[in-house]
Specification:
By secondary structure, the protein is mainly alpha-helical. Helix content is 77%, strand content 0%.
Length: 220
């Protein structure tokens, strides 16, 4: 007894595989968006800011994540526009095939990641995979580039977080010294220093300064 209802055309199989691949990409879209865009650096810096100021729940995590998403969309807009013009629209208009559209879509994203990825981090993953070093950027697989990009973003975000901690640490040290000199050792220094740290952040227009610095860090 044959279970086959007839021969299946290769074009139908190819179309089915393309649809399956697209659904797979859509299911992984949140993880991809967090790892190959500016989102990683932004959200880590935001959490460093909240820890440095000593306010654990304000702003709420959902608000910080939403702001990081909006900032990522703005920062990645030129990359998305390039992908849409050179890959998505030609594919929709059937001027190019699926494989060529996928290749074109990777080019601007790879260029963005290469600008913010250290060669040291790429070499690390090549040594882990026990592969020979690439001769040029075109030989670096996108998956390996994305992994190295995330490590580089961690390093950059932690460097920015260290700079954020310094002024608030100075405020904590000054307040602790004053309380110790006054003999008020039972009063928690964090309770006294928090209003001063909030005042300092408001006076210097901290949100404008921080967001502007984060955006500029992706432009150079």
């Amino acid at each position: 007894m044959s279970l086959s209802g007839g021969e299946v055309a290769p074009s139908s199989v190819s179309l089915s595989l393309e649809i399956l691949f697209l659904f797979t990409i859509l299911s992984l879209a949140p993880a991809i968006a967090m790892t190959v865009t500016s989102f990683t650096r932004i959200i880590i810096v935001f959490h460093f800011l909240r820890q440095a100021m000593g306010i654990q729940q304000i702003p709420p995590t959902q608000i910080l994540a939403s702001l990081a998403i909006f900032m990522s969309v703005v920062i990645m807009f030129p990359v998305g526009q390039d992908i849409n013009q050179n890959a998505v629209q030609p594919y929709i208009q059937e001027r190019i095939g699926f494989e060529e559209a996928l290749t074109r879509a990777q080019l601007p994203l790879r260029a963005f990641m290469f600008r913010h990825t250290r060669e040291k981090d790429i070499s690390l993953f090549y040594s882990i995979a026990q592969m020979d070093s690439p001769q040029n950027k075109d030989e670096v697989p996108t998956i390996m580039l994305a992994a190295a990009f995330v490590i580089s973003e961690f390093k950059t975000a932690f460097s920015i977080g260290f700079l954020i901690y310094i002024p608030f640490l100075i405020v904590d040290m000054v307040v602790s010294s004053i309380l110790l000199a006054m003999g008020m050792m039972m009063l928690p220094p964090m309770m006294v220093s928090m209003p001063f740290k909030l005042l300092l952040f408001v006076i210097v227009d901290g949100w404008n300064l921080l967001i502007g610095s984060l955006v500029n860090s992706f432009l150079f």
